[in-house]
Amino acid sequence: MGQIKFLLGSIVLLVLSYICLFFVAVDVPENFSDLNDTNGVPAVAVYVALLLVIYFFAVLLTCLGAVVSIKISRCSFKVRMAAFIVFNFMLVLASLFTVLVISAYVFGTWLGYVGITLDLAAIALVVASAPRRSKIH
What we know:
Elements: H1 2-25, H2 43-71, H3 77-105, H4 110-128
């Protein structure tokens, strides 16, 4: 049951990181070299929209994996670990992609620092929620 709490915590941290990225992306200019040029959409805004789609599928896959992990709790460690990796890999990749976008476009802001911290904490919670070998005495 602790595994599911950690995964839900990582989802909450991921959503909070996305909110930080969204609010800091509002102030990014369209063209860094010419601030008077306002034609087009900033690249970070495109990445924010793309991340929303990636987050949706990552959270959906993680929730599905939580249900599957309950069903296969009596299986061998290799099966549980394989299911964990398959269902949570996209969540870790979404966090890493968010760290990349924040580092590339909005790293100098305090919301950027908060977003990176939240993403790294989300990755740590996913790793902490990995299945353990059962100890038989």
